[in-house]
From TrEMBL:
Protein name (database record): VTT domain-containing protein
Positions of transmembrane segments: 29-54, 87-106, 118-142
Recorded topology in the membrane: Multi-pass membrane protein
UniProt keyword Membrane, yes or no: yes
Primary localisation category: membrane
Every VTT domain range: 18-136
Assigned keywords, A-Z: Cell membrane, Membrane, Transmembrane, Transmembrane helix
Domain of life: Eukaryota
One cellular-component annotation, GO: plasma membrane
Organism: Medicago truncatula
Compartments in which it is found: Cell membrane
Length: 143
């Protein structure tokens, strides 16, 4: 039941744009690499999808108003129109780009929900795996 609770905890944190790195580390610490990785990966992806849908629907005016400060984002939207899956995947692979911010920014682009979810899931895997692994090593220092 614990891994399911961990995965579900991601949803409100992601929608509220709260960094969930502690949950990812905790998944490794509490459940080990395989189970922690699966729970964290599913939770982060579902949470990203929930934030994406919120930004695409009732949150759209707010997101669009914030984009006025980032005129270069129009280039990203054009690239997504041409190669949505690939651009989302590449953006997710860059750990310097804030996970929560991308959920909302990408919600106002023409990428489909299916492409967004699959590319996000695959693109978040490396950093999720790394953080879960670090969480597993914390047992050495904390016990």
């Amino acid at each position: 039941m614990g891994p399911l609770v961990l995965a579900v905890a991601y949803i409100p944190l992601t929608v509220l744009a709260v960094p969930a790195s502690v949950l990812t580390l905790g998944g490794g610490y509490l459940f080990g690499l395989p189970v922690g990785f699966v729970a964290d990966s599913i939770g982060a992806t579902v949470g990203a999808g929930a934030a994406f849908l919120l930004g695409r629907t009732i949150g759209r005016p707010f997101v669009v108003s914030r984009l006025k400060d980032y005129p270069k984002f129009k280039s990203v939207a054009i690239a997504i129109r041409r190669s949505g899956f690939k651009i989302v995947l590449l953006l997710r692979l860059v750990p310097l780009l804030p996970f929560n911010m991308l959920n909302y920014l990408l919600s106002v682009t023409p990428v489909s929900l299916v492409e967004y979810m699959l590319a996000s899931w695959l693109g978040m895997m490396p950093i999720t795996l790394a953080l879960v692994y670090v969480g597993t090593t914390l047992k050495i220092f904390l016990t």
